[in-house]
Amino acid sequence: MSFISQAQGAIDTAAHFTTLEDRISKLEEKNSQLEERLVKTEALLSQHSKWIREQQIEQQRGISDAHHV
User: Fold this and answer.
1) How far is CA 35 from the centre of its chain?
2) pTM over 0.70
3) Which residues, in sequence order, are CB contacts of 55 under 8 Å at separation 6+?
């Protein structure tokens, strides 16, 4: 193998790794964004669940109050 073909192979390998590093970096950034969205979604779900429980308690109170009238 000639020096030129070895050098070209090294350049191609370096370019490939640079491309992979770029892809990894972009995936890490996307992962971070998705983790932030997940945290926000979990918070909203928690709030919604709390609201539903409060509504159920209010309904039960309304039914209970209606029985005592």
Assistant:
1) 3
2) no
3) none
17, two tokens: 């790794």
How far is the C-alpha of 16 from the C-alpha of 24, rounded, in Å? Answer: 12
The CA angle 30-34-36, to the nearest 5 degrees, is 120
Cα 39 to Cα 53: distance, rounded to the nearest angstrom: 21
User: If you average pLDDT over residues 40-68, what whole number do you get?
Assistant: 91
Tokens 């020096």 belong to 3
Q: Which alpha helices (H) appear in the chain, and where do they start and end? A: 3-68
Distance of CA 21 to the CA centre of its chain: 21
Q: Calculate what percentage of the chain has a pLDDT beyond 90.
A: 83
Stretch 24-46: mean pLDDT: 98
Which residue type, as a one-letter code, is found at position 40?
K
